[in-house]
Design goal:
There is one protein chain. The chain is α/β, with parallel strands linked by helices. The chain folds into 3 domains: 86 residues, Orthogonal Bundle (Arc Repressor Mutant, subunit A), CATH 1.10.10.10; 103 residues, D-Maltodextrin-Binding Protein, domain 2; 112 residues, D-Maltodextrin-Binding Protein, domain 2 (3-Layer(aba) Sandwich). The strands form 2 sheets. Strands 3, 4, 5, 6, 7, 8, 9, 10, 11 and 12 form a 10-stranded mixed beta sheet that branches. β8, α7 and β9 form a beta-alpha-beta unit. α1 packs across α3, α1 crosses α4 and α5 packs across α10. The N and C termini lie far apart (64 Å). The C terminus is likely disordered.
């Protein structure tokens, strides 16, 4: 349906007079009358009752008038919104991330991105790690921060951060007296860590299994492993005295005075963070965000290259 015909109909319906409507539209009356007849023919419905003295809306005409006004209003708003975006140069970028990125690269990347691209609108979506790849594949987000193990060949990725998992302890725990905790000291302890979901990518399972293997290599199995959904939950249970926990070093740096944090003495378990994007995405905003993630990740890796407690200083 032509918007021109809608405008013509609305003018006649509001004026209820072809002459006045024609003047309002800067048209001759005859072409206007012909246009309304063409509209009624296309719809197969009589919209107006015409006599020599008056014009009136039919019931169908009143319904169509309400709908036509709404269509014209939305069309006007859409045009105005498009012009505002064009004039301001505003663009949008959607980023999906697993929660762990909040404690490492993401805050600094967001700060720098907003400084460098003040006109851009940045949308951040925290997702379960298994959902980040799905959101990328469905083009719900343009950039993802997630664990290794991508399955979609249309996505490009690279590692931007590798960090140790460290031990978090209740403040009054005896192991808090040690600078580094030998693995054997974990024997008999309840170990709290993030759970291993069934839909986890292979890499995530490898990290989970590496914790058990680390203990087995030291000649013992933890008396109990308590699985929780997030590192925040690990910290809360450890602070409540329900066990000791393993979390990423970046998260451990946020625990403040609630917990004691120690490095393990011996082979450690490391976790990786990837940045991922569509291979065919040539958006300048996507490229800028990915480059910032690379740079901030590089800075964090350089800072944390010496395996001492500086990586978890507050």
């Amino acid at each position: 349906m032509e918007h021109r015909l809608l405008r013509y109909f609305v003018a006649v319906a509001e004026e209820l007079h072809f002459g006045r409507a024609a003047e309002r539209l800067h048209l001759a009356q005859q072409p206007l009358s012909a246009a309304i007849k063409r509209l009624e023919t296309q719809l197969g419905v009589q919209l107006l009752k015409r006599t020599s003295r008056r014009v009136a809306l039919t019931d169908a005409g009143q319904v169509y008038l309400d709908a036509a006004r709404e269509i014209l209003r939305r069309t006007l708003e859409a045009g105005e919104a498009a012009r505002r975006v064009a004039q301001s140069g505003r663009e949008e970028l959607f980023v999906g991330y697993k929660s762990g990125a909040l404690y490492s690269v993401l805050p600094e990347v967001v700060r720098q991105f907003r400084q460098q691209h003040p006109a851009a609108e940045l949308h951040l979506r925290e997702l379960e790690f298994s959902r980040v790849e799905a959101a990328l594949s469905a083009q719900e987000v343009q950039v993802g921060l997630l664990c290794p193990g991508l399955r979609n060949p249309a996505l490009a990725s690279e590692r931007v951060l590798r960090e140790l998992m460290v031990l978090v302890l209740p403040l009054d725990h005896p192991m808090a007296q040690l600078d580094r905790v030998p693995l054997g000291e974990l024997q008999g302890e309840t170990l709290i860590c993030c759970h291993r979901p069934l839909d986890a990518p292979a890499y995530y399972l490898e990290v989970y299994d590496a914790i058990r293997e680390m203990c087995r290599a030291s000649g013992f199995t933890p008396s109990s492993i308590q699985e929780v959904a997030s590192e925040d939950a690990v910290a809360s249970l450890v602070a409540a005295g329900l066990g000791i926990g393993l979390v990423s070093a970046s998260f451990a740096s946020t625990t403040g005075a609630r917990l004691e944090v120690r490095l393990l003495d011996g082979p450690g378990v490391e976790v990786d963070l990837l940045v991922a994007w569509h291979r065919e995405d040539g958006s300048p905003l996507t490229t800028a965000f990915v480059n910032l993630v690379r740079e901030v990740g590089r800075q964090l890796m350089d800072r944390d290259s010496d395996p001492d407690l500086s990586i978890i200083s507050t």
